[in-house]
Amino acid sequence: MYHILVVDDEVRIRSIIKKYAEFEGHTVTEAGDGMEAVLLCRANTYDVIIMDIMMPELDGFSACREIRKVSQTPIIMLSARGEEYDKINGFELGIDDYVMKPFSPKELMLRIGAIMKRVSAPLQSDAGKPQNIVEEMDGGGLRADITARLVYIDGERVDMSPKEYDLFFYLLANRNIALSREKLICEVWGYDFYGDARTLDTHIKLLRKSLGRYSKYIVTLRGVGYRFEGE
Predict the structure, then answer these.
(1) Does residue 130 sit in the same domain as residue 104?
(2) DSSP readout, 11-27?
(3) What are the backbone angles phi and psi of residue 163, rounded to the nearest 5°?
(4) Distance from C-alpha of 182 to C-alpha of 197, rounded to nearest angstrom
(5) Are residues 106 and 142 both part of a single domain?
(6) 167, 209 in Cβ contact below 8 A?
(7) Pair 24, 130 in one domain
(8) Domain span including residue 224
(9) How many domains does the chain have?
(10) Per residue in 133-184, pLDDT tens?
């Protein structure tokens, strides 16, 4: 089971999350603001962090920025606001997921499980590692080393968030196939679809930004989802 740090200035929210988390066997530590969360993360290790955005002392974005200096612990951001700017800002800071308030505690637990399943996936031994699989497009202008999870554009390495890599490599592996939003969220995020396609759309926007002129390969299928086109 996991040790979860719950950061929210609302006691009621922390209490709800703690109740459901402990019911599933997890251990919960609470923090009432971003500053307390940063101090806790500097002194302790957690499996996952659930953090609100709007808090006194230090808001969630600032706290995430400080935590990322010392830890890569998965972070799920909570927010009562649905502005796209908030999501983009959070994902660029390195959060792993974004959940809108009010939220379903059951869904939150599923998201925690999905994130931890990905993070704790056992690494292959050297003997069992496949040879590097490299995909090249536009005469090598866009190069993806799938085994090493590296992307190069015109010879320059591109830094992406973990979820951008996941999404890009899944699209690449399923090129020329129409993929619904539901399919992408289930496969890339690893949990059942709950109707919030905005998280996917935000990541597509970030991925297109990372790919620059090669973003042309990601085609929007209106009312359906997306397709990665390429030879």
Answers:
(1) no
(2) HHHHHHHHHHHHHTT-E
(3) -70, -30
(4) 8
(5) no
(6) no
(7) no
(8) 126-228
(9) 2
(10) 678 887 779 999 887 888 999 999 998 887 888 899 999 999 999 999 888 8
